[in-house]
Predict the 3D structure of the following.
Amino acid sequence: MIQVKTRLINRQMCMRLSVFALVMFGFGYAMVPYYKKFCEVTGINNLLQPSLSKGEVSNTQIDKSRWVTMEFDANAHGMPWQFGPIQRSVRVHPGEMIQVAFEIKNTGNSTLVGQAIPSYGPKHSAAFVKKLECFCFKQQVLAAGESRQMPVQFVIDPALPASVNTVTLSYTFFEVPAADKKNVSAPAVAAGSAG
């Protein structure tokens, strides 16, 4: 009698555990669409964002509520170089990574080395323009008749005061005296080289 009762209790417990295991399996299976929907609504770890390729990172620090116009100016001080931006200005959101390019050509008869010095308007905006890549980091060598495009990659810090709507980035190339030539950039194959 006790054995029959024990078997009955064991059978009931086995049935309850089987039902519990099935419910948990169903719950785990149903969590995938719920998780996707939760991520879509909250924007956390969005698995449904097809625009992001593997390894690409999205920037969550972009201030999409405001625009800043970035203007570009360029000149070569006393050098026979034609130098200017491909785009005169771009509109950017603070925190957004932007790349622009400048074109340069040596119109002289000899190879020259130059160094670009940046300046900003208004002056206090310099602290808010973070350059990741810039031709101004190195001295540039241009042979007679050589031309190339040079990129500048930057981000405007979202902490830029809201009163600043326009920032001007100006580059001036100065010739580097022979004694000061160091850290020189002379690509083997310059983009857009001309004879």
About this structure: The helical segments are 2-42. The domain at 68-185 is CATH 2.60.370.10 (Ctag/Cox11 (Pfam 04442)). The mean pLDDT is 83. Strands lie at 68-76, 81-85, 89-92, 97-106, 112-121, 129-134, 139-142, 147-156, 166-175, 184-185.
